[in-house]
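Reopening this one. Same input as before:
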Amino acid sequence: MEHTPSAPRDEVRTFWVGPPLSHYEILSLKSFVAAGAKVFLYSDATDLAVPEGVELRSAAEILPDEMSAAHSAEGQVGRVRQSDLFRYAMMEKFGSWYADLDVICLQDRLPGTDTYFAADGDVSLNTAILKFPPASDFLRDLLAEARRVLATAPDTGTSFRDRKIIGAPLLKKYVDRHGLGHFGRPISAAYEIPSYDILSFFDPSRREEVQSRLAGRDFVHLWNEAWNLLRIPRRLGPPRGSFLETLFERFDVAFPDRARLEYEAIESWVREHRLVKDICDAVGSPAVTAKTIDEFAARVRLRGWRPAARDYAYLDFSESKPQELPSLPKTGDPQVVRTFWHGETIGPYQQLCLKSFADHGHTVEVFSYGAGQDFPDWLVARNAAEILPAGKVLVPMQQSGQIAIHADLLRYALLEKLGGWWIEPDVVLMQPDLPPGDIMFAGAPNVFGQVPTTVLRFPPRHPLMTKALADTVSLGETVDKWGGAGAALLTALLAGQGLRQNVAFESLGPVTWLSVPDLFDPAMTDELTGKCASTRFLHLQGDVWRRAGVPQVLAPPEGSLLDLLLSRHAIDHAFGGRMEFGQLNRWIRHMYRAANVQ
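Same output, byte for byte:
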């Protein structure tokens, strides 16, 4: 009688450098044993207590040279880097699964695949649970590059980026380079619960919600990194009735009742941590100091404070949830607004501004030079040569080879010839109707004492536009002189012709040149939304973005006013990632300090 040989058991390898295993690491190991896997734990310690079904092995079997030098590495930095290097070396040698000890297997069997990683589309992937075939070109190249990077990397970095120098970004780079992206599972397969929502693991009232979200998922990641930031003690068991308790019961990991965490205590730690983070982000400081607290207190007295919506998820800050913006009413008096753009495509934030006018029922005409621009179909493309020859506006710079754009010249020429509305592509229309009147300026003088050119309206051949055009032409083609043709010239002409007192001025909204970070701050969304309900325009202050180098290829922070406006106007752009408010706030405030205007 023949016997069909049973399929070989899956092998899972993991790595540990540090104190004795807590019950949470034991939970991870037992979940893989329960899935029928042979589990190998590699460590530099020979006396770790491991559960039945787990084989303790020396990490020197995988990284002999690195482990012999590990004891001179600097604490957590060395440990994280060893972990990253170990997973690559182990998979290159054996293939099989690699799992961090904060990953729990949720299924009775591991996925039947040779390659496994979970990725968030083209943006990022995580390294906590991986599987790749052994001895592949991909793993050889990845391991060689990781060793090369570590050989020249400093050992003293303490930031998350320093510690992860050969982690997820390097893995993502080589997955893309070797064309393996199509093997990626959806991020929810292993990381359905994001790191900022780890409270859900501990909250008894959310147990059923978490179980429902994880139904059918392969793994759940408990996010040790977040536990470390919050200093959650692993020597204590999970709260009674929590999702974590159901895992401990399922995999037979016992805690005495007297040694349990209380959910309210964990919640208070999260509140404290995120308040400290809010303070640092608000004032652009990496740490809380007496000066930081004073600056934050001054900000609160001036503007008030609400916690960031996402970071305070499920902390019962109901007022922190952003208000829903109302639906978009159409104007009863449609107008034509005009602007200029140079380039094949219009950026997402500029599209937001222009589409806000179109969505309210106005016609948006974009003047440009050249054919074949990839413009959206909701605007009207017009040839700027109707106004001025391209050589007058687009001037090559001999030294750099770049093109200087004399946008001020085109603006005055267009308004002098056609009249009507001119808008810069950094202003959002917040109400359906444009203001009445044949002559209109928007915005009080800015921080430099100048009248903005952001929104203008004049009848054709108005004397002020004729004078502005003549004065701009007189500056010639010397690019260095063009700076005097924009807001500075308009301000001088208004004063000289006595129009400042006789022309209607319309507000450009609550965001000034000095408060641009508020656009990106989720904690300011409710306040700005309320203020925008009574203003016609919202000026995004594009000059500040350019000076500070704000990366427009990235989406704004989640929950910010900009995030809501992009959604409101259905700007569906494939951003390369998302900005982090604290970092962006530091960039802009550094620019303010450099410009000596803060």
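So the earlier flakiness isn't reproducible anymore. For the record, The CA atoms of residues 331 and 427 lie 18 Å apart.
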